[in-house]
Design goal:
Elements lengths: L14 H10 L5 E6 L5 E7 L2 H9 L17 H7 L4 E6 L3 H15 L7 E2 L6 E4 L8 E4 L10 E3 L5 H14 L16 H4 L13 H15 L3 H17 L3 H17 L14 E8 L3 E10 L2 E11 L5 E3 L12 E3 L1 H16 L10 E4 L6 H12 L4 E3 L4 H39 L7 E10 L2 E11 L2 E2 L5 E4 L12 H13 L7 H9 L14 E5 L2 H13 L8 E4 L6 E2 L14 H35 L6 H11 L2 H6 L2 H5 L6 H11 L14
Parallel strand pairs: 8-13, 13-14, 15-19, 19-20
Antiparallel strand pairs: 1-2, 1-3, 4-10, 5-6, 5-7, 8-9, 9-10, 11-12, 15-16, 16-17, 16-18, 20-21
Helix pairs in contact: 4-11, 5-9, 8-9, 12-16, 13-15
Length: 681
């Protein structure tokens, strides 16, 4: 394995060092790692010929003399990554299968930012089971959080409604944890009485017994419903033989529910006892939509979706379908199609459990490294796995079905993209912008007569919410206090706090600017193309005054959006722009404003709730902030504290008998002891 270099400049700026490092790499199977100037892993890949693969990343940047920049052949994502590489490492393996397994393990450990050939599109939901907890929870999420490796994510599912329906049915069939936190401290809630929950909050079921129930549920989302039916049938027959008729009836109801779950998902196949995955894609030359059908015992149990960027120039026009929803489909190069499918399968099967790997994988294009992928899957599964490209009969019809669904998904993606593009184009026309506003920020203020005043910032990138860039602000101005609100001062404060540091320069763009090849943009990734202030001329004027003080007014385009008539105000103009509330650009601004309002209101409610909770405890003499936090951490809510006895209160660290009696007396003044002293006459 190569040693870490001590230089801080990117390798593209040190061609001699780069060439020396490339010569060190052997032409053997293995794994390579790219690192940035902070030592973080940018990308992890594998290859059966390490030297050729790693050299291919840097070749497009130089001509034969190794000095002059050449025409860029990478996608923008790969180009940005290569421009940040300061050091590279490699690990040699004996076989390609070992390289694939090592790559999967290293990706799970390091979570590299650029290891995202497949976009986990947020429009696709996942089901998460929190195996890291003693009593695992089940919930639907649109973001994979890989902080806890023991948690499992199933998906992404293209049918969100079907996923929700399946989860609701599963929660009716099996007694599962219904709440992330208990509703009561000393007794279970109504779900326990209804048989919907086994009493997790009160420990009425052992963690091992509860996890056995969750394992049965996981089998449904693993596509192993047939195995689960066999297990439940055997358990039902055993319970009936032991005269445990009540338990047998519960198992019978679960079997009926599972039968209902897959009743409408039958797929005609010649052998309905073999588990198969079928994968195909459709592309328009820019984006490829990939569909993966999971078929178990002849039933379609899951339909997963992925998207991937197609390198420029790899598609050739094909005959397009007729109809209003037709998309200019492209006949993809079979070799590139096989590469995309190969990477999808490696990504997918690297995240699933061995029992989820099917006996057969049917693919649309031949995989470039299909033999060792099949060997790797067989090693994980413990049994043979066959990868085939069907040409005729039923399996070919199945691939055609999957491909047709991929075309529909591509059409839907294009319609959504076209809608956002039209809205951005219309907004640029209305505001007379020189370029499309790719990054738009919106700010809103929320309070009740000046109390708990907060602000929000939401960001739309390419017309879609980018929630990772949302921010919340607590208003610090002394002019804003309960009974005295000042939206203008609040907006001025937020704008100042956002832009007081001036134009930022992120490390990736700084590297691009240094190279001076015209590929980088002269702005940081989080520098907005348009700033929207929720409010009329007053809020806009306050924000403009701040930007003028910061000498940023000429660099930022800012507008105000009034609520009533959806009026757009520009700085220095008394009249609003002549617009139609129903035109695409104004509708985009309305979505942006509504999202900022929702985000601000939710934060305000949270602050108000916390203040009301803290204020009641603050009225108790001798109970400081630290003890208040300990009480709330122990009892979870004020209601539990009020219902607790002095002995229970004294169990909290830092709460002695005297303070416990004082807390109890505060909530129950009628039971408080009389003060010592002479009796009244």
């Amino acid at each position: 394995m190569g040693d870490r270099g001590d230089g801080q400049r990117v390798l593209l700026q040190r061609p001699e060092v780069l060439e020396g490092r490339l010569r060190e790499i052997p032409a053997e199977p293995g794994v390579y790692l790219f690192r940035d100037r902070e030592g973080r892993v940018l990308y992890i890949g594998k290859s059966k010929r390490l030297r050729s693969r790693v050299r291919s990343y840097f070749r497009p940047f130089f001509r034969e003399d190794g000095q002059s920049p050449a025409r860029h052949l990478h996608t923008p994502r790969l180009e940005l990554m290569v421009r940040q590489v300061v050091d590279l490492e490699f690990i040699v393996t004996d076989t390609e299968s070992e390289a694939l397994m090592l790559e999967a393990n290293l990706i799970k450990r390091h979570q590299p930012h650029f290891n995202v050939l497949l976009k986990d599109d947020k429009k696709y939901p996942y089901l998460c089971i929190t195996w890291s907890e003693d009593y695992p929870r089940l919930f639907i999420t649109r973001k994979r959080r890989l902080g806890e490796p023991r948690d499992r994510y199933y998906g992404p599912y293209t049918d969100a409604h079907g996923l929700r329906s399946t989860l609701q049915l599963v929660k009716r069939l099996f007694p599962l944890r219904q709440r992330p936190r208990p509703l009561f401290k000393d007794r279970p809630c109504l779900n326990y009485d209804l048989g919907r929950c086994p009493g997790v909050c009160q420990g009425l079921i052992a963690p091992d017994a509860y996890r056995q129930t969750v394992q049965k549920v996981a089998m449904v989302f693993q596509g192993r419903t047939g195995e689960l039916v066999e297990q439940l049938t055997a358990q039902m027959e055993a319970a009936a033989a032991d005269l445990e008729f009540e338990r047998a009836a519960v198992l019978r109801d679960q079997l009926r529910g599972l039968d209902q779950l897959g009743r409408d998902h039958k797929v005609a196949l010649p052998d309905d006892r073999v588990s198969r995955d079928a994968i195909a894609l459709a592309t328009d030359g820019v984006v490829a939509c990939i569909q993966l059908f999971q078929i178990r015992a002849g039933r379609l149990v899951g339909r997963l979706g992925y998207t991937a960027q197609v390198p420029e120039g790899h598609g050739t026009p094909a005959e397009s379908a007729d109809g209003p929803d037709a998309v200019q489909d492209l006949a993809l190069d079979p070799a590139l199609g096989g590469q995309l499918l190969q990477r999808v399968l490696e990504n997918h099967y690297g995240q699933v459990e061995p029992v989820e790997i099917p006996a057969e994988v049917t693919v649309q294009y031949a995989l470039p490294e299909g033999e060792f992928l099949a060997a790797w899957l067989a090693a994980r599964r413990g049994r043979r796995v066959e990868i085939t490209v069907p040409q005729r009969q039923t399996k070919a019809d199945l691939i055609a079905l999957v491909e047709r669904n991929a075309h529909y998904e591509l059409a839907r993606t294009r319609r959504s993209s076209d809608r956002d593009g039209q809205a951005l184009q219309d907004l640029a026309t209305v505001l007379d912008l020189p370029t499309l506003p790719h990054w738009i920020e919106c700010y809103d203020i929320s309070h009740i007569q000046g109390s708990d005043a907060v602000a929000s910032r939401v960001v739309f990138v390419e017309g879609q919410p980018a929630k990772q860039h949302y921010r919340r602000y607590k208003i610090r101005s002394a002019e804003v206090r309960p009974g005295h609100s000042d939206d203008f001062a609040s907006m001025a404060e937020v704008i100042r706090r956002r832009f007081r540091d001036g134009r930022p320069r992120s490390a990736p763009n700084a590297a691009l600017a240094v190279l001076g090849d015209g590929a980088g943009r002269d702005r940081a990734d989080d520098w907005p193309d348009l700033v929207v202030v929720d409010g009329g001329k007053g809020q806009l004027s306050a924000a403009v005054a701040v930007l003028r003080d910061l000498d940023l007014l000429d660099e930022l385009r800012i507008i105000g959006l009034a609520k009533r008539q959806e009026e757009i105000f520009l700085p220095g103009q008394s009249e609003s722009l002549p617009t139609d509330p129903d035109q695409p650009g104004v509708q985009l601004l309305r979505r942006l404003r509504d999202e900022a309002h929702r985000f601000a209101v939710s934060f305000h409610r949270q602050q108000r709730r916390d203040r009301m909770t803290q204020s009641r405890l603050s009225d108790i003499p001798g109970l400081g902030h630290h003890r208040q936090k300990q009480l709330l951490a122990h009892f979870r809510s004020i209601d539990y504290i009020r219902e607790a006895t002095p002995a229970q209160l004294a169990e909290v660290p830092g709460i002695g008998p005297a303070i416990a009696q004082q807390i109890h007396g505060y909530f129950h003044p009628q039971n408080a002891p009389e003060p010592d002293g002479p009796s009244a006459p």
